[in-house]
């Protein structure tokens, strides 16, 4: 089975610089921040909120491609978001789930407690039944590359369930400091303000008149 690191390296070689990446907490953010340090990254998105946040961005910025780098434990905490994605049907959204079938496995020497996908749940099937017609499963670099390239060339939404190894034995070197959640949030907001010509961050003075 393929590693998270191998797929994220492949993704980094595929995506244009203007695609917005929303990454869940844990090794999705840790690895991606080392591999592809860029202003268009929103990292450290908390449990259950990665795909939901990406959906909001996709709806607010319909002219920008948005990719959610979610994980099986994160997504199943808020599985109803797939129904909302299907109903809203943003053409610019792709959800990639790094699915290792367990909780905390990336931080230990052995896999943690199984997630639902470590049992009988099939996220591709769940996505299809929720109404995301473009749902697929990949287990190697070649099929991952093909599905991502196809998603970026066709209207979405798309769901790619990437079945990866239970443990992250293959990982990037820690060559740089990754911005902490608060710092990254403001960096990302500033980037969107410049790129989209909108105001997100205000002065916080309020109306005292």
What is the number of independent domains?
Answer: 1
Rg over C-alpha atoms, rounded to the nearest angstrom: 17 Å
What gross morphology would you assign? globular
For the sheet with most strands, the description reads:
6 strands, parallel
Tally of helical runs: 8
The CATH top-level class label:
Alpha Beta
Low-confidence stretches: none
The structural class is alpha/beta
Helix content: 25-40%
Spatial gap, N to C terminus: 62 Å
- The overall pLDDT, averaged over residues, is 92
CATH homologous superfamily heading: Thiamin diphosphate (ThDP)-binding fold, Pyr/PP domains
- What are the secondary-structure elements, in order, as H or E? HEHEHEHHEHEHEH
CATH topology: Rossmann fold
Neighbour order of strands in the largest sheet: 2-1-3-4-6-5
Overview of this protein structure:
This protein has 209 residues and is an alpha/beta fold. It has one domain (4-196): 3-Layer(aba) Sandwich (Rossmann fold). It is 39% helix and 16% strand. The chain has eight helices and six strands. The chain has helices spanning 4-14, 27-35, 50-60, 72-76, 81-88, 123-130, 141-153, 181-196, and strands at 20-24, 41-45, 66-71, 93-99, 134-138, 158-163. Strands 2-1-3-4-6-5 form a six-stranded parallel β-sheet, sandwiched between helices. Helix 2 links the parallel strand 1 (20-24) and strand 2 (41-45). The radius of gyration is 17 Å and the shape is globular. The model has no long low-confidence stretch (mean pLDDT 92).
């Amino acid at each position: 089975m393929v590693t998270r690191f191998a797929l994220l390296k492949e993704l980094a070689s595929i995506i244009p610089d203007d695609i917005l990446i929303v990454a869940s907490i844990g090794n999705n953010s840790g690895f991606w921040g080392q591999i592809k340090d860029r202003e268009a990254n929103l990292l450290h998105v908390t449990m259950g909120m990665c795909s939901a946040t990406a959906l909001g961005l996709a709806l607010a910025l319909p002219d920008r491609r948005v990719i959610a780098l979610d994980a099986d434990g994160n997504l199943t905490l808020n599985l109803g978001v797939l129904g909302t994605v299907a109903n809203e049907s943003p053409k610019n959204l792709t959800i990639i789930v790094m699915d290792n079938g367990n909780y905390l496995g990336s931080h230990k020497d052995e896999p943690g407690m199984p997630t639902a996908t470590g049992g009988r749940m099939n996220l591709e099937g769940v996505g299809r039944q929720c109404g995301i017609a473009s749902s697929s499963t990949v287990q190697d670099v070649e099929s991952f590359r093909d599905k991502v390239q196809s998603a970026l060339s066709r209207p979405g939404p798309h769901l790619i369930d990437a079945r990866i190894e239970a443990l992250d034995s293959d990982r990037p070197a820690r060559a740089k400091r990754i911005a902490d959640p608060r710092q990254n949030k403001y960096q990302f907001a500033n980037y969107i303000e410049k790129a989209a010509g909108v105001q997100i961050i205000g002065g916080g003075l309020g109306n005292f008149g």
